[in-house]
Amino acid sequence: MASTLDRLPPYVFYELDARRAHHRAQGRTLIDVGIGSPDGPIPPVVVEAMQRVAADRALSGYPYFRADPAFAAAATTYLAQRFGVTVDPAREFLALAGSKEGIAELILAHVNPGEAVLVPEVYYPVYARATLLAGAEPVFMPFLLDGRLDLDAIPAEPLSRAKVMIMNYPGNPTTASVSLDELARYVAFAERHGLLLLSDLAYSELSFDGFAVPSVLQVPGAARVAVETHTCSKSFNMAGVRIAFVAGQHAAIARLDAYRSNIGYGVSTFAQMAGAAAFANAATIVPPIVAEYRTRRDAIVAAFNAGGWPVQAPRSTMYLWLDVPAGFGDWEWVDALMAGPGVVVTPGITFGDAGRGKFRVSLVQSAERLEAAAQGIIAAARR
Ligand SMILES: Cc1ncc(COP(=O)(O)O)c(C=O)c1O
Hints:
- This protein is α/β, with parallel strands linked by helices.
- The chain has two domains: 140 residues, Alpha-Beta Complex (Aspartate Aminotransferase, domain 1); 239 residues, Aspartate Aminotransferase, domain 2, CATH 3.40.640.10.
- The strands form three sheets. A seven-stranded mixed beta sheet has the order 2-8-7-6-5-3-4, with helices on both faces.
- Helix 8 links the parallel strand 5 and strand 6.
- Helix 3 runs antiparallel to helix 11, helix 4 packs parallel to helix 11 and helix 5 runs parallel beside helix 6.
- The radius of gyration is 21 Å and the shape is globular.
- The chain starts with a helix and ends with a helix.
- Pyridoxal-5'-phosphate binds next to helix 5.
C-alpha cells in the first residue's frame, strides 16, 4: 500500500485549498462554493445531547466495537420510519466515523489485489482511491443520458474480477437520482454476478419538490447482497462530528467489523450519542435544513437563467453540476473564477476523467451570495 500511496496523485481538494489560500493571502474576499461542507449550525437538540453526554462517565471507557446500543436503536428506528426497512441492530448494523472512511474500510475489507470494484464513471473520489489502495482496479460504469448506470456496457472481463459494485443516488456531483425500480435492477445485477452492492446514500434527506429519496434496502431481499451507508454530515449539518453508519448484508458487516476491530476501537461514544439525537429527531431537524437549501437552489438557478445561462433545478443534493464554458480548460476555468469574480468552484476532474468539461457549485452560501456567485460566473464566461 505504501508504494501505491506514493503514486496516487494528490487529492484535488488539497490543490484547490492551495489555490484558495494563495488568493486569500493577497487579501481577496472569495465566495467559496467549492467543497460540499454544510455551513449551517449543528441542530440545537443535538448540541444539547452533546452537552449532556460530555459529563457522562460512559464516555471515559472505550466504545462498543460495532455500535452503541442507543445509536443503533435510534438509527434503525429512523430506517424503519423513513423507509419502512427492518434492520437487525445486532447483526446488520455498524457505526462509522463518517461514511467516507467507512466506504474505504468496506472496500479494503472486501477486495484483494488484482480484483476489481465497479465505480460510477463520475464518482466521489474515495471509491476509486480506496480501491487502488487495496491493490485492486476501479472499473468505471458509464451513465445513460438520464444518469442511470449502463450495466450492459460493463465488459465481461473486468466484471468477472469484480467483487464490489458502488452506486451513489442521489449522486455527488451529478445530482442524479433513480427510482426504487432502478435500484431493484442493480440488486438483481449484483446478485447475478456475485457482487457486494454498496449504496452510498449520503444525500438521503436533501431532496426537493416532494421527491422522497429511496433506500436500496427497500428492495425486497436486498440485504442478501447490499449494504448502505448513511451519514449525519449532510442531513443534519454534522460533517465535523464524524458520525455515520452502514446497514445491510450481515456477512459484509461482519467482515467490516473484523477489519475495524483489528485496527481500532469503535466510533467515539460522544459522536454516537450526537448521532442518536439527530436520528431520533430527524423528522423535525430535516425540514428547515431542506427548506434553506431549496431557497438557495431556487435563487441561484433563477440568477443563472436570468443571466442567459440555462440551468435546471436539481431535485436532490446540495449541488449544481454545470458545463465549463467553451474555450476554457478545467483548471483554467477554476483559476479564471478565482482571479476574476473571486468564486471558488470544484473542477469536474475531481470526480474522475468523465467529469472533464464540468464544474460543481455547492449550495453552502446564503441565497444572496449564491446569486452573486452566479452573476460572477456568467460574467467570467463572457470574457
Ligand atoms: C457521495 C458522498 N459520500 C460520502 C461523503 C462523505 O460523507 P461523511 O462526512 O459521512 O464522510 C460525501 C461528502 O461529501 C459524499 O458526497
